[in-house]
Amino acid sequence: MGNPDLVNRRVLATGATGAVGPAVVRALVDAGWQVRALVRRDPPPELLPAGVELVRGDLLDAASLRRAAEGVDAVVHMAALLHGERGDARAMNVDATRTLVDAARGKRFVFFSTIAVYGGGGPFDESSPTRPPTEYARTKLEAERIVLDAGGIVLRLPAVYGSRMKGHYATLVRALARGTFPMIGIGDNHRTLVHESDLAQAAVLALGAPVAGRLYNVTDGTTHAMRDILAAISAALGKRLPRLRVPLPLARFAGAIVPPLGARLDKYLEDVRVDGGRITRELGFAPRYDLEPGWKKALS
Predict the structure, then answer these.
(1) Is the pLDDT of residue 266 over 70?
(2) pLDDT over threshold 70, residue 5
């Protein structure tokens, strides 16, 4: 059911056709927002809900960003140049954010950032120091400061999984589905995740938040050992956990010899623990999906 207080309230969504964008747009529409989506090309008709206004534009075209922001009451800025993608990260992640913030002065601005700004380890909360290890994380942190200085809301996201996920977890799912994934070590490194539906809920709450210039980590409420993540994915696929196990020293030796393998291994062995209590306490965020139901929904 929509919120009658939001009748005729319009929000601009960037990144609406990306990995998490459709879930967020659906949640905005369900909450009563009229959504305007900035797109480079028309998406498949079934990707976004009926009634979403499509506006052609590009993050690197400042004029099109200003036109897209005209007449809206709020902005949810999800689009970015992600880690490993080709392009000018500073132009996409910093300059475009600055242009949008300037075009939306006086309006609610919600910005999707990343827990990668903390670096590895943890547990981290919003007061923890940041040590961004990559250009992607550094540019997202710089963009955060622009948003916060203007009174916007920043959501720091962990790994988001769902029906359109990409990257490391999509690769992991495919390998587990094929039965070609070996368990590396004992899987005791911890990761922070959130299901796309819960992230969408957080975005809706942030739009209505009675605060300004605030930063929130968004998580499913806990951290998970990698072995438990693998078990949940395997169960959702109807598969058994991998029987083949590779000792960690052997895996690291192989990764040192084959750099691409080493990079994938480093990603798999990341340990990132982030606390998401602030958004629960301040905005009433209540994630619905833990590992098993979340992965079952993602892979159904």
Answers:
(1) yes
(2) no
DSSP letters of the chain? ---GGGTT-EEEEESTTSSSHHHHHHHHHHTTPEEEEEESSPPPTTTS-TTPEEEE--TT-HHHHHHHHTT-SEEEE-----TT--S-HIIIIIIHHHHHHHHTTTSEEEEEEEGGGG-SEEEE-TTSPP---SHHHHHHHHHHHHHHHTT-EEEEE-EEESTT--HHHHHHHHHHHHT-PPEETT---EE-EEEHHHHHHHHHHHHT-S-SSEEEE--SSS-EEHHHHHHHHHHHHT-PPP--EE-HHHHHHHHHHSHHHHHHHHHHT--EEE--HHHHHHH-------HHHHHHHHT-
Residue 293: inside a domain? no
- Burial 188-201, CB ≥16 within 10 A → b, else e: ebbbbbbbbbbbbb
Question: Does residue 90 lie in a domain region?
Answer: yes
- CB burial of residue 183 (10 Å; 0-12, 13-18, 19+): middle
Residues 12 and 64 in one domain: yes
> pTM (2 decimals)?
0.94
Query: Per residue in 203-253, pLDDT tens?
Result: 999 999 999 999 999 999 999 999 999 999 999 999 998 888 999 999 999
Query: What range does the domain containing 174 cover?
Result: 167-189+225-268
Q: How does pLDDT run across 77-132, given as a tens digit for each residue?
A: 999 987 667 778 999 999 999 999 999 999 999 999 999 999 999 999 999 999 99
Q: Are residues 45 and 177 in the same domain?
A: no
Q: Looking at residue 214, what is its pLDDT? A: 97
d(CA 71, CA 125): 35
